[in-house]
Amino acid sequence: MEHDGLVSRTAYAQVPPRVEYALTPTGKSLIPPALALAGWAIEHVPHIEANRALHQTPPE
After folding, report:
1. What's the count of helices (H) and strands (E) in the chain, helices before strands?
2. What is the reported pTM?
3. 4-43, pLDDT tens digit by residue?
4. What does the angle CA 12 – CA 18 – CA 22 come to, to the nearest 5 degrees?
5. Among 1, 21, 37, 56, which residue has the fewest nearby CB atoms (within 10 Å)?
């Protein structure tokens, strides 16, 4: 994700080693769509689970 410009990485030369990651502005721009997708999934869980149950093959 760092190479895609979504997160920045800061390494500190210390013992023990320490690295911090932070969202870049581009990474932060993904928060609203990710929350929208999560909301959609929560809203549709009952429908998804009902369809899964319809397509399960019974044990032989």
Report:
1. 2, 2
2. 0.66
3. 999 999 999 999 999 999 999 999 999 999 999 999 999 9
4. 85
5. 56
